[in-house]
Amino acid sequence: MKNLLFVTMVILSFWSCSHDPNNTHQVKDKHQSVVDEEQHETESVTLFSENFEVFTEYDVLRIGHESEFLIHITQLDDDYSAFTGGTVKVVLNIAGNKQIEIAEPAKVDGIYELTLVPKDIGVGSLSFNIQKESNQEQLVTDHVHVYKEDETDFHPHGSGSGGLIRFTKEQAWISQFNVIQIKPDSFTRVITASGEFMAMPGEKQNVIAKSQGIVLFATRNLVQGKFVSKGDVLFTLSGQGLADNNIMVRFNEAKINFQISKGNLARHETLRSEKIISEKQYLETQSKYITDSILFYSLKKTVGDAGMRISAPMSGYLHELTVSEGQFVKPGELMATISTNKVILLRADVPQQYFDVLGKITTTHFRPAYTSRVYTLEELSGKLIARGASVAENNHYMPVYFEVVNDGTILEGAYAEFYLKTDPEPEHIVIPVTALIEEQGNYYVYVQVSGEEFQKRTVLLEANDGIQISVASGLSFGERIVCEGPMLIKMAISSGIPAHSHEH
Question: What is the pLDDT of residues 203-239, one digit of tens each?
Fold first, then answer.
């Protein structure tokens, strides 16, 4: 929704505003705005706290003259949203003499307006007191000048440098956009490797044919991916029409032998009590009965009128079906594979050149081939299981194994790209991958130099773990960069958005 509003705003800008294309890239210190057909030179200041960004534009302060303030307040949260529902108090302090004004909300959320008439000449401070419910913050800028009525030799607070791109707060608030401050962070050495998702031992079982016969599916919807419960009948092996090793013939023979053995045992028990037969004969009859009963009851559990029933040995998903309806199978042939899909084994294949750091690998990020999402080992309750100590025959890679709990989005058998990580090292410049723009093999980011001005900055990358990037050069601690929506800044260049397009 925010993106749709942004596109609409850009289109309306073309119809409602005339602009100089040069101003798209260069924003001057002295913004020209016409009020009652009289030109005014304005100053701007941008202040930051932990929770707020205050970007203010105001007419140059002259004693006895009205100065119009346009205050943009952004909440530095996950949404980079406009501040609403609170009060904004502006205090001008010149040599201890304070003027206090309450800013009024404008028609656009996040923007406050006020008119201030300075009463004293000199250099002082300007503070912005933001309050919402019981929370209050104060942001202060020093070296604020109040000039004489006819004084013209002043120096605006703006940056005044060229090569800047203007992107207004109104555009940022309705877009998927955010800015972060670069702080010292730890980062790890990253080894990029390919690999595969596999079933954990014990989480996968084969369904084997226990007799020869013709395969009959138990249900019409027996397909790969279907969930089955332990004991569910999957197939029936029919011996109909088979001359040799017919399962029904075997079952009937076992049944007859069992009945004969049972009768013989009952008769011999009577003869034994009357001491007509020897103990040896009785034991032989008993042994024959036990053997025949074991065979009969084992077949009885699995053999019905249609043939031998093949059941699921565990609950899980049908990972693979290797037989089709009507196919003839022999004893021991693989018919299907069942996987729980709960715990997945990750295998990363590491090139031999990284053997010296193999023992330092502690965790990994990984991106499956079927999605752009990058997972962390921790979010899937994963852990490192083993590191390969040798290279297998006909394989030039060393395996590293991890175990994860499947949240339903990991596809067994799929390939993936792994970002293997070693122990963290401190004092790195680390930025999210989403902040990066690639252009003809070069990488750059957008640095915020003032409230609505951004600078395109080339960066050299050091390491990439799929989620964050360590920057070798091009950025400094304390700078603020666009971490979400950098393409919007790039679009602002190509579409020629007016350099100053506030409407309130």
Answer: 889 999 888 888 889 888 888 889 999 988 899 888 6
Amino acid at 105: P
Among residues 375, 374, 348, 370, which one has the least CA distance to residue 414? 370
By the 10 Å C-beta count (0-12 exposed, 13-18 middle, 19+ buried), 408 is classed as exposed
How many whole angstroms separate alpha carbon 87 and alpha carbon 70?
14
Token pair for 47: 């202040």
Strands 97-105 and 87-94: antiparallel
CA angle, residues 24, 487, 20, in degrees to nearest 5: 10
Q: Coil, strand, or helix at residue 461?
A: strand
Q: Is the dihedral of CA 314, 320, 326, 331 positive or negative?
A: negative
**pLDDT single digits (tens) 110-141:** 999 999 999 999 999 999 999 998 889 999 99
Average pLDDT rounded to a whole number, residues 240-266 = 75
CB count within 10 Å of CB 369 equals 12
Task: Note the pLDDT of residue 381.
Answer: 95
- Packing angle, helices 247-273 and 279-302, rounded to 10: 150
* Per-residue pLDDT reduced to its tens digit, 446-469: 999 999 999 999 999 998 899 999
CA distances from 183 to 75, 246, 456, 459, 477 (A): 19, 76, 20, 16, 5
